[in-house]
Amino acid sequence: MEKPSIPILKSGDCLITSPQVALHDKLAVQFKNDILQRIVETKAKGLVLDVSAIDVVDSFLVRQIGEIAAASSIMGGHVVVVGLRPEVAMALVEMGFSLEGVHTAVNLEKGLEVLHKIWRR
Amino acid sequence: MEQKMIETLEIKNEADIIRARVRAKTIAEALGFNYMDQTRIATAVSELTRNAYQYAGEGKMTINPLNKQGRRGIEIIVEDHGPGIENIELVLKGGHSTGGGLGMGLSGSKKLMDEFDVRTRSDEGTTVTVRKWL
Amino acid sequence: MLKGKTQEPIIESTVLIDVDTQKLKRELSTLLEHNAEEIRSQWIKEMQGQGLLAALSPTEIEEQSKVIYDTCLLCLKTGSYEVAQKYVASMAKKAVLQAMTVDQIIAGLLILRDIYARFIFEWYQKNPTKWRNVNGIYEPVARRILNIATQAFVAERESTIKQLQQQEVAKLSTPIADVWEGVIMMPIVGVLDSARAKQITESLLERISREKTELIAILSIGGIAAIDTQTANYILRTVHAIKLMGSEMIITGIRPDVATTLVTLGIDLSGIVTRSTMREGLEYAFDKLKLKVTKTS
Questions:
Q1: Domain range enclosing A25
Q2: Which chains form contacts with chain A, at 3 or more CB pairs under 8 Å?
Q3: Which of A9, B21, C164, C258 is the most buried (most CB within 10 A)?
């Protein structure tokens, strides 16, 4: 498999990824595909998506995240978005997006906690 | 005593969308907008330039600093010569997605900015003008 | 105006009747109009010599100097200072100019005043009486213009200071209280308009983003008199934004009548946790954190 341009790490039963560059559309789609492929390959039960380095999230990216969440859910997994910047969160809410289907947490550590809590249920 | 700073950027590919929003953010910051407003502006630019690129294949963005009787602001115009937007009212109500994004992007940018204007004609293309004031 | 020296000229100028003053005024205006280019370039040259125009482009210098020159002439001709007042007020507002500081602008105007005076002297020096009369027309105008300019800048500066002070006071009046580890509270008293709401929520958001753990923020609005739709919506959006960031904000103190108004206005309160009192809000927070307050022994 070709190495994904944005690293996706595996930690136990979940995947962790933290894009550091601005995701233009092609890259965002590729990123989504890479994630989905990895989830299938590793049978990961969860994904922590760290967006703390992203300063603008628009409808396109929201849609990619939504697709990741939907696909992941079909496979029985959960997605946690962590590190959303306040100004990005506010812009998303103002536009009317709610990031349904994903959990949210303050940071990576808390994100993993959330996943573990969910699995324990 | 202000310099007329007019920024124009051609949108020819996806990297230009990113370039456009970075430029808009930088200018917004220089004009004195806080980080919350800078992000609103950059997000609106991202939506509008993407619409132009996706539906017309090309576009042009112009950024004008505004100064109206001492009140400062930013104006961004995104124009394309694409097929125009049908049912503009429906699209603006948000959610009516012909290709999965036009509606959301347009209504989203309207919500983020203070002023919003769209002119569209099937034989001319589309021009969206948005403004935000300090 | 020195007392001793003005005795004579004053007597002489009161001999003039109004018609003559008008005629002289017209003569002076025409003189300054015809020689505008020469006077203006001399003015620019001297300002440049003092380094006042360093930050401006040649086009700006041309344009602005013309506007100022013409505005001054207008005041002289018409005796009305309205145009000057408007112009100076707008100049003062433009963030007190990125290109020139207030002192530089005043210095520039003082130079113009001197150059006009010099020009008038050179023109009328062969006729001292006439010169004194012309000066008597010119000087009050020049002084008035400078007065207007300085007043406008002072007023603008005062209003900026006031604004900053208000912001600082607003910040102090709505501090974020660290109630417990993981719990912060913001009690709001007084008037909550959208401007204040924006400022409050921005400081809340900033605090939450800085924190390494999730926070439960309690926004207490029991102390506010009324709330408008725009402000209510803004606060509710902030609740959702904080949720997206992985923390939580609850609202306490929504009075029954306020609640009814909000519902009537069609404001969507779903997904918003509210409690009537600050105390219940704290109980909610402690419950969430799996904390309990018990009596010792």
A1: 8-120
A2: B, C
A3: B21
